[in-house]
Amino acid sequence: MTINEAQDEIIEEFSELDDWMDRYQVLIDLGNGQQPLPESDKTESNLIPGCQSRLWLVCESDTEGRLHFRAESDALIVKGIVTLLIKVLDGHTPDEILEADLYFIDRIGLREHLSPTRSNGLLSMLKQMQMYALAYKAKGH
After folding, report:
1. Each residue's pLDDT tens digit, 85-105
2. Is 138 exposed, middle or buried (CB count within 10 Å of its CB: 0-12, 13-18, 19+)?
3. Pairing of strands 67-73, 55-61
4. In angstroms, rounded to a whole number, what is the distance separating the alpha carbons of residues 25 and 138?
5. How far is residue 114 from each of residues 24, 54, 75, measured CA to CA in Å?
6. Domain parsing of the chain, residue ranges
7. 106-140 per-position pLDDT tens digit
8. What is the pTM (predicted TM-score) of this model?
């Protein structure tokens, strides 16, 4: 699935929900569906700066150079937001991630319905995923 196909799927899923309380519930459910990270991944170096809650993000590259993300947060909404980002960016190459236009964030109204601190956290998550992509691209993976 391409990045845009994943985004379109999310937009479609959220467009069926008019009420933002329902949309928050979808985010919480998404986050609850994530596998918890092993304690060994919950290190200071995997902690995302700029998030009010604690959020760990791990990135690994497979043999084909595609990046795979795993994350965990102690806040349910944050866990759901990072799950959306993973759903869109996981399994893609560094170039695909760096060139992606993540239009779904605005189309589902996420940015406008987040508190300023959560909005900053969203930007921090995205920035960290792009930094991983840059690092792997520089390594030539």
Report:
1. 999 999 999 999 999 999 999
2. exposed
3. antiparallel
4. 39
5. 10, 17, 13
6. 3-139
7. 999 988 888 888 888 899 999 999 999 999 999 87
8. 0.93
Residue-wise burial string across 39-56, b where 16 or more C-beta atoms lie within 10 A, e elsewhere: eeeeeeebebeebeeebb
For this structure, is 59 an active site residue?
A: no
User: CATH number of 3-139: 3.50.50.60, 3.90.1010.10, 3.40.50.1980, 3.40.190.10?
Assistant: 3.90.1010.10
Q: Beta-strand (E) ranges in the chain?
A: 55-61, 67-73
**Residues 27, 51, 85, 125: which is the catalytic one?**
51
